[in-house]
Amino acid sequence: MNQFLGKRITVYCAGSTKIAPKYFEAADIIAQDLVSSQATLVFGGGKTGLMGHIATQVISLGGTVQGIMPHMLREIEMNHPLVEDFLFVETMAERKALLLSNTIGLIALPGGSGTLDELIEAITLKRLGQYLEPIVVVNIDGFYDPLIALIDRMVSEEFMLPEHRELWTIVNNPADAVRAIATTPRWDNRAIHRALVK
Q: Which of 6, 5, 9 is CA-nearest to residue 177?
């Protein structure tokens, strides 16, 4: 399986080391699928938690990885020591922009406020037609159910359009995440003309 040879897929995920083993197991599956499909993992560059784990797994399996991190995090030695391809930037905003640049999609594993910030910004950019690639949310044991419910409420109360529920693809099984990048169609680049609820 090498349908993503030379292509870049971003993974958003946690830096916490205290999370449950099931999340690390999910990262293992996604790492294996990224390597099997010959995609490059693009991630936030951290050495701890799911970020560090998925990068280590991809590297150990012979895959390719690019880390993107602000200098302020490098200064406190948060950068993954095994990652050779690193882009260091000045701000978190620059990091988020580069995490999406020239990628064929992104996968969001469970995470904290940073993961949520990145995910919501990507969804907003897609709504505006600025990022057209698949956004795949791995909803392990209903982790993202409250966010899904909030988006549904935004739609039902007409802050967003019903079609905006299709800005992301929800998978419950991490083994479906990389496959969903291949099977989810790109968003319409005219989406900005339908971004507003009128």
A: 9
Closest CA to 50 of 133, 137, 108: 108
Q: Considering the domain boundaries, does residue 155 fall inside one?
A: no
Q: Is residue 26 part of a domain?
A: yes
User: How do residues 126-135 score in pLDDT, each as one tens digit?
Assistant: 999 999 999 9
Cβ pair 91, 68 in contact under 8 A = no
Tens digit of pLDDT for each residue in 15-57?
Answer: 999 999 999 999 999 999 999 999 999 999 989 999 999 999 9
Provide the domain count of the chain. 1
Here the CATH number for the domain that contains residue 63 is 3.40.50.450
